[in-house]
């Protein structure tokens, strides 16, 4: 199973790609030099890792995502709920709302979501 967790540095790198794709690998190297103060070898090492994990691809010198930002974070959220709450969304919401009171707007949004997905 692919793990959809990124460290802080990998997250910054992924965000740069999502914000600028499609881009050439040379453009990515220059962007990482400017934004992250990385050397070329560091950029290619991290890119290779994230390509191996199926998040991005570097094909013919063009870097693009295999998963959109939204898809990635959706999968990351699913993985978290599966691991921490045995896949139970109600358990997650219970834990979440123990320390943070839900606003009326949040409750209304959740109710709309439930109504739309009721089968």
TrEMBL record:
Pfam families: Penicillinase_R (PF03965). It comes from the Bacteria. Keywords: DNA-binding, Transcription, Transcription regulation. This is BlaI/MecI/CopY family transcriptional regulator. It comes from Dysosmobacter acutus.
């Amino acid at each position: 199973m692919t793990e959809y967790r990124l460290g802080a540095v990998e997250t910054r790198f992924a965000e740069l790609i999502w914000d600028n794709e499609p881009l050439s690998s040379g453009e990515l190297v220059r962007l990482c030099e400017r934004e992250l103060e990385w050397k070329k070898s560091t950029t290619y090492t991290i890119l290779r890792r994230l390509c191996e994990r199926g998040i991005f691809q570097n094909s013919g010198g063009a870097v693009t995502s295999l998963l959109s930002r939204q898809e990635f974070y959706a999968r990351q959220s699913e993985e978290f709920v599966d691991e921490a709450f045995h896949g139970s969304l109600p358990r997650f919401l219970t834990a979440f709302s123990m320390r943070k009171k839900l606003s009326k707007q949040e409750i209304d949004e959740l109710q709309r979501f439930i109504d739309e997905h009721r089968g």
